[in-house]
Every structure is written in C-alpha cells, then in structure tokens.
Amino acid sequence: MDSADYEKHKKAEIEHYSDVYSGFSGPSENRPLLQPVPPSWTEMEIRSTALIKEAIGSVLTSYLIKRLRPNPGATMLSLGSGPGGIELTVAEWTPDAKILCTDFNPALLELGQQRANSQGFPVRFEQMDLNTATLPKGEFDVVFCHASLHHVIELERLADQIHQSLRPGGEVVVLDVVTPSGYLMWPETREVVRNLWPALPQELRVNHTAYPEGPRFDQEFWEADTSQSGMECIRSGDILQVLSERFVRKVYVPYYSISRRFFDTMYGPNYDLDNPLHRSVVDFIWELDRYYIRSGVLKPETFFGIYTT
Questions:
Q1: pLDDT tens digits for 222-239?
Q2: How far apart (Å, rounded) are the C-alpha atoms in residues 70 and 96?
C-alpha cells in the first residue's frame, strides 16, 4: 500500500471511530468509553467471557489486575486502546501500576485522558500509529491488545516491537478478530451461514449498517471486504501466525465460528432477547458455534490468547 492509499485508509478509520463515539451527548465524564453494541452482542460477550474464565480462572479485567497489582511499579502498555474503557477499570484497582494507552485517534485519546484525570488515575494517553511505532526496550510487564491488531498492516514489525518491549516474564494479552482479511468468511463458514440465512424469520434479516439510506431487509447474507476503505480487518487473517512465530503461547481460547455474523452491529439489533423465538435462535446459533469450534469443522473468527517470550 503506497503512502497516499495508507493515509486514505487511516483517515477513514479515524473518522469511523470518531463517529461511533460522537453520538453520545453530555459531559465527557459521563460518556461511555466502550463501543455501543446491541443486546445480542452483549449476550455473546457474556458467553465468551465465561469461556475465558474457564480457561484462566477469571475474567479478562481481573486477570490484568492480578498481573499488575502485586508488583509496585508494574507497567502495562495498551495498543489501540481507544478511550480506555477496559484500561481505566484496571487502573482503578491497580493504583501503583503505570498504564500507557495508545491509539492514533486524537478524539478518543482526549476523551480517555479527560476521564483518567477526572478520576485521578495516573494513566497516560498518547497518540501512536501501530504501523510505525518504536517501543522502548524491556519496559512493560503486560502488553494488552484488545481488538487492535486487526487494524494493523505492519503486523510483523509491530510483533517484533512488542517482543523487545517486554520485561522478563512479561506477557502479551490479546483478544482479537481473526477472520480472513477484510472480515470475509472462510468458504466453509460462508456455506454454513448462507444455508442458515433463509431459515431465519424476515425480521432477523434486516441489515442496520451496510446501506446509507438506513436499515434494509437482506434476501441474502451481506458480505463485503472491509479493508477496501478503512483499516478494519486489513490483515486479520495473519494475526495468529505472526504471534505464533514470535511468542510462546500460554493460553488460547477460540470462539465465534459463526456467531459474529448474526449478532454484531449489522444484524444484532434485530434480536429482542425477551422474545422467546429470538432467544431460541440465539441459543441455537451459539450451540452450533460451540460444536463447530470443538469439532474443528469451522475455524474461529475471534480468540483470546496469552503469550510470552
């Protein structure tokens, strides 16, 4: 990608996430610091959190707190933190830790820094382009990558920088999307999703994000390459390989073989979890998802991992 194309993709990425958070009104100290999602996606996050807890004995935030709290002066770097919703929760319980949040979106960094200052948390927010960043050597006990690596083009370079930035015994904690690049589906996943699609009630097949004019019923499941404009999933299909080549994997929790496709912000708003039919569809697709992952029939589209050097 030449420099002009890169700047165009970067601009689109910044504008997209600025728009996501600009919809919140009121004082900055009251604005949500996590991206808004429909209730169906919150339900998926609750279920995937249970899988992570089963693997490591605690939820993600508690794990980070346990890594930082016992060691005065412990340090954590968060890459692509946005306004730091998770990081400020960790900071509340680790007053002696040093937490640095980075992102290349200045509006989100400003929102996070204002919140940290208002709550008296010693968390710093700094602008950083993960494609060109040079990290200090031997500086961090934890490098946290929450849904950030799938926005990075120079994955190999960034992974090398993370590796040399860790202190002895340090960890990389990752939760990310690992679909084929561009948020496309593997052929086997596409076949399953497209076969399920006609069986859904029409009200569950309304697309809320793809069309400028607003929500529209999709006769067929909508799929497009998101990497053509912004940075979304620009090299998501390479994340697992790049990490495995440079780090030792301690924990690996794969999930969402198909659930992302039905319950994220595109189709997720269709689901009323108080509606017995909708709830039954959610449960059915989740159980299919777990079967496909356990049996190896389909690859995961999301994973949680902990890596060391």
A1: 999 988 888 899 999 999
A2: 9
Burial (0-12, 13-18, 19+ Cβ within 10 Å), 68: buried
β-sheet with 248-255: strand ranges across: 123-127, 98-103, 75-79, 140-146, 166-177, 302-308, 248-255
Residue 280 in 3-state DSSP?
Answer: helix
Q: At what angle do helices 106-119 and 85-93 cross, to 10 degrees?
A: 20
Taking only the tens place, the pLDDT of each residue in 85-135 is 999 999 999 999 999 999 999 999 999 999 999 999 999 999 999 999 999
3 state SS of 100: strand
Q: Is 66 exposed, middle or buried (0-12, 13-18, 19+ CB in 10 A)?
A: middle
Residue 80: closest CA among 107, 101, 99, 106: 101
Characterise 4 by phi-psi region: left (phi > 0), alpha (psi -120 to 50), beta (else).
alpha
Helix, strand, coil percentages in the chain from 3-state DSSP, rounded to 5: 45, 15, 35
Q: Which residue in the block uniquely carries the two structure tokens 């509340």? A: 92
162-201 burial code (b ≥16 CB/10 A, e <16): bbebbeeebbbbbbbbbbbbbbbbeeebbebbeebbeebe
Helix or strand or coil: residue 103?
strand
Question: What CA–CA distances, in Å, run from 69 to 5, 62, 73, 93, 98?
Answer: 43, 10, 9, 7, 11
φ, ψ dihedrals at 67, nearest 5°: -70, -30
Give the model's pLDDT for residue 70.
Answer: 87
- How many Å apart are CA 124 and CA 76, to the nearest integer? 11
pLDDT confidence of residue 23: 57
Under a CB-based contact definition with an 8 Å cutoff, are residues 258 and 194 in contact?
no
Going by their DSSP bridges, the two strands 98-103 and 302-308 should be labelled as unpaired
The fold adopted by the segment(s) 3-308 is Rossmann fold (3.40.50)
pTM of the model: 0.93
